[in-house]
Structures are given as structure tokens and as C-alpha cells.
Amino acid sequence: MKKIILLFAIMSIVSFSGCKQPKEVKNPFFTEYQTPFQVPPFDKIDSTDYMPAYTEGMKQQMDEIDKIVNNSSEPDFDNTILAFDKSGKLYTKVSKVFNQMNEANTTPQLQEIAQKLSPMISKHRDDIALNEKLFNRIKVVYEKRGQMKLDPQQNRVVEKYYRDFVRMGAGLPKDKQDTLRKLNEKLSLLTLKFGENLLAETNKNFKLVIADKKDLEGLPQNVIDGAAEKAKAAGMEGKWIFTLSKPSMIPFLQYAKNRELREKIYRGYFMRGNNGNGNDNKAIVARIVKLRAQQAALLGYKSYAAYVIDDNMAKTPEAVDEFLMKLWNASLPVAKKEVKEMQKIIDREGGKFKLKSWDWWYYSEKVRKEKYDLDENELKPYFSLSNVRDGMFYVANKLYGITFTKRTDLPVFQKDVETFEVKEADGKALGVIYLDYYPRESKRNGAWCTDFRSSGYEDGKKVDAIASVTYNLSSPTADAPALLTWDDVTTMFHEFGHSLHGLFTVGKYDRTAGNVPMDYVELPSQVMENWAGEPEVLKFYAKHYKTGEPIPDKLIQKIVKSGLFNQGFVTVEYLAASLLDMDYHNLTSPRDIDVLAFEKKAMDSIGLIEEILPRYRSTYFSHIFSGEYSAGYYVYIWAAVLDADAFSAFKESGNIYNQDLAAKFRKYCLSEVGDDEGMVQYRKFRGQDPSIDPLLKRRGLK
């Protein structure tokens, strides 16, 4: 998932030369990085470097703000808007490294720093957002923009910043601003604590330890080997450990014959944050929801959802709810049909029980085998991680001409991380990409893309992006490389798509370069998934890890035919979580809630069947309670309409590598996407509004 730059975060995303260096401290953040491509010198950064760098970064940015507001000249684009746009280099520099390290490779020291930083950062942001003199100068430029002979991009930057400040409360009276500051600080601490609790619940507080080999019945050998290696590393040689990381949990749910143990591990997963211990998130969720409702009311919005979505393509919560329910009504009957198919298998096998949520993966695998003669274990030998990685690089090369060269001379923050230099077809530098593949206790669940430096301009010179992609994929074993599930494969292509968006971004101004509405941001990632399953692409990268033989046509046809497999479940569990998110943030007044009762009522109201849980229950819904998707989890399927429609253009052309279409997509939907509103840019590529039909067809909902 893309790390969205929220508008209230007001940080510049630029290169980092020119940072002032305090005389008394030798700190890697205080000088230009002395590394190839000026990547972060992870081998030289110590946890003690972060706080001094943050403190100095905030001070420098406030000095820059003071210089803007105390300028005696009439406010204009250069002395106000551009000066603000380019402020905060050091602050951004340290933030980009610290935030990623705290999510992907955290330590108790980093978590302690994060707790201390949270109120400091909240205050810093508010000191900028609620700076009356700064806002007044921006307002002057905004009101006189028609007289300033600005070009279209300058005009857009002015309008965006003015709107940002209004949305952040710059126009509120002093007493309400003080209240807003308190709300922002409380929320920053609560969302941080939610994430820390969830990390502990996922990676530390549950392990399924198996001592009896009979309990492994049904599991593939590579899964057993991986569990044995986990146990050995934990000092329990001769046993097997399964965790709540999806590469460990999902295969267990798919193949383990022991139903009680399937329930145990799945219950461990869906009870995270709801165990009445020190990591319980129920009270935190209730407080976050209440505070956000207060925040929205202060800012003049009916609800927090109305506040968030007003800045998105959808514009209103009502439009989102209508869109989601249209898909819900199409997908729920499909999911119910899937339940019946699985129940028939249970009955036929003499199971004498009703399908439960923890049975879904096990019996859906049986359905896949019966209906499509496809067992995922047949596929995995062809999906070694290195081959899949080379496959996504190949697609990018065929579409855009870019190349990827592995570098072994760049410092990394963890031994398994790989780095690649990215170049244009003509050899011109484009950037660097970091790929971090495997689960570990110091890394949160999921997959996401961020950067250590964004593409931009510094003193008129182009600065290339340093992208960072984080996965939690199946790990290698002593006897085999990392062999991926089909879900792992599409996840690799997905996050890689985000990195292409960052690498391709062009634009003079940090506020608009690559900056898109939240419900557009998943288009660049999701569109890449379409290529992963195309037969001619599979022929290139899906090669048996032992023999090197390409995947046989017979298996490719099974993959194609099984494209509609389990789509009712996939769509329903996702939509349930999206609708739950909307219900929380559609509250029109601040009030105390019972989180479990609220969740149950929300799910009952849409008729969610008991065999399916929402993809994320409230107490581990990190996207909305510690991430950047609050009132925005719907964006994945909103963008899916765009990605299905976009890929249909390639299919209709008769060439999935159509370079003319790829050039248009790169220009309008990736590189210059910040030049105008998301739908305007999409229409420039497609020549028409997107149709929902390709998505419905792809999911078997039409």
C-alpha cells in the first residue's frame, strides 16, 4: 500500500543538499550523504541520530517560515508560495528514513523515540498550519493570482496550498485553533499506540507451536520446513512454529487438516487488539473515532468522512456509499454461492458441521482443485521470488524501456534488502529502488511503498527518486528459495507499480508533483497486477526453480480459467471492511461508542454472512486507525474501476505491451498526474470516462 502524503503533513519532498550542520554534532543527517546516488547511509545512522536531526529540522523549517512571514515585500509566488514549497529539507530528510525504519525494522529504542516525537511533530505541523501571518500571505497570493501572470502549474500550486490551509483550520478563531491543536496531538499519540499494540499482537503475542507431527497433516513440505526453521531459530528444534504473518498463517489455513488448529490460528489473527490485555485497541478505536468527529465539526464538516472525501475524486460520502453498495449487492450472492459449494464438500466428506470463517481457506482450496483442477502447490515451484522480481522488471522494460541493474555497493538497513539502479532506455538515470522482501518481528504486516527521496527539483536540477518497497513474502528455506503464492506474486507487481509512480514523477513543485487524490493513488499499483497473469508474461518469468523450465501451457490455462475463483469472498470481505470504515467516519457528532457493538451493528446492517469476517476488524484495522486510509479504505476498489478500464485499452489494442499507450499512461497518469485533477488526467490517457464494466466482468459480478 502507497504511503500517501496527507495534506496536513506539510513537508517538502525534495533533495537534501544545503542542510545546515550544527558544529557540535557529527550526524549523518546534517550533511549530504556521502554514498552512491546519495542514498541514506544506513550503516552509519544510529538511533541516537534521529532526535537531534528532527529537532534541528523543525527549527530550520520554522526559521524558513519566519523568513517568509517577516518579508517586507508584497507577497508573491516566489517569496511566499515557492519559498514555503521548498522549506523543511532536513525535516523531510530525517522523517523519510525514520518513518520507514519504525515500520519496517523497528526497535524498542525507535518506538520510544516515536512516542517522544509524536507530540513534537503534531505541534510543528500545527505551528505551520495555524500560522496566521503565513496564511495571510498565502491568501494574498491566492486572491491576486489572476493578476500575477502565473503559469497554469503555479496557479494550481497556489490554489492547492490555500485550500490546504483552510482545511487545516487556518481560518478558525484562536480558541477553536487551540482546541484543534489538542485534538491533533491526542490523535497523533493514539494512532501511534494503535500501531504499536498491533505489532506486538501480530509478531510477539501469538505463536502456534506444534509438537506432534500428526498435526502437520495436509501441509506442503516447504511450509513444514519453514515452520521447522522458525522453531529452530526460537530454540525449539524438533517442533514447528506458525505465526500470524500471512506467509505462515494462510498456508496453514489452506492445507492443515486439523480443524481445531485452523480455528486456533485464525482466532489468534482476528482477536488481535481485542484480548483485554495491555495491547487492547478497543478503547483507542473509540477515542480516535470520537476525536475525529470533533475535528471534523470544528472544521465545519458534517462528518470526518465528509472532510476527507471532499478532497477526493468521489467528493461526498454519499457517492462512496452508493458505489460500495452497488458492488456489495452484486458480490454478496456470489459469496453465498461459494458457501454452498464448500458446504457440499463438507457434507460429502461426512464433516457434520457448518462452514465457519476459519474453514474458508481450506475448503475453497478443495473447490479450486475440483472446479479448476488447480492446486496452488503446483504453481509455487514456478514462482521463485527472484523470477517474479525479474518478471515485473521485464514488464516495465517492455512498456517503458527502463532497465534495472542490481547494486551491491549501497548501504541497506537489513541484510535481505536488495537495491537496483533504474535507468531510462537511453541510459539516463531515473532513480534507485530498495526491495525488502521477508517478514520479521521488527516489521509490521502488509506491504507498502514509500521513498527515501522523492523525485523533484533542486536549484533547477532534476533530483531522482529513491523508492522503497516493503513486502512480507514467503521466506526461503534451507532446501528451496522463496516460493510465492499467487497472492504474493500480484502483491509484488502491485507495490512495484507504486514505485514506478514515484520514479516517473516530474514537476517543479513539491505540492503537486505526483500528488493525487487518495482514491486515485491505487491506480498505478493495481494496473500492474493485470500483467502478472497474462500468458505471454507468465511464459517469461514463471520458470521452475529446479529445472528452469517455463510454466507449461496447461497450468497457464488453469490460472486463466480460475480467474473468477473465490471472487465473492475476496470482494465481500474487502467491501465489508470498507463499509465499516465509512460507518465509523460517517458519525455526525462526537459520541462514545462500544466498538464491538458498533462493528456488529454495521455488519448486520449490510447482511454480512457469518462465514466471512471483514478483511480488517476494528481492533486491527491499521489502514484507518494507524495508517493514512481513514474514510478511505474504499479507494482500492474505486481505483480498480480505473485500472480495469485502463488495462482493457491495452487488451483492445491487441498488444499488452503497446508502447504508444504506455507512453500516454506514463505521461498523463504517472509523470504529470499532479498537473490537474485525477479524472482529468485519466481522460487525457483514455479519451473517455472509465467504465465499471471491465471490473465487474473481471470479478465475475456481471
Please explain how this structure is put together.
It contains 27 helices and nine strands. The N terminus is likely disordered. The chain is an alpha+beta fold and 702 residues long. Strands 3-4-5-9-6 form a five-stranded mixed beta sheet.
Short description:
The chain is an alpha+beta fold and about 700 residues long.
Layout of secondary structure:
Elements: H1 50-69, H2 77-85, H3 89-104, H4 108-129, H5 132-143, H6 152-167, H7 174-203, E1 208-210, H8 221-233, E2 240-242, H9 246-255, H10 259-270, H11 282-298, H12 304-309, H13 317-348, H14 360-372, H15 376-379, H16 385-400, E3 403-407, E4 418-423, E5 429-436, E6 448-453, E7 456-458, E8 461-463, E9 465-470, H17 486-504, H18 523-532, H19 535-541, H20 553-561, H21 567-585, H22 595-606, H23 622-625, H24 635-653, H25 659-671, H26 678-686, H27 693-698
Parallel strand pairs: 5-9
Antiparallel strand pairs: 1-2, 3-4, 4-5, 6-9, 7-8
Helix pairs in contact: 1-2, 1-3, 1-4, 4-7, 5-6, 7-11, 9-14, 13-14, 13-21, 16-17, 16-19, 17-18, 18-24, 21-22, 25-26
Which characteristics define this entry?
702 residues, alpha+beta, Neurolysin, domain 3, 4 domains, 5-stranded mixed sheet, two-stranded antiparallel sheet, 9 strands, globular, disordered N terminus
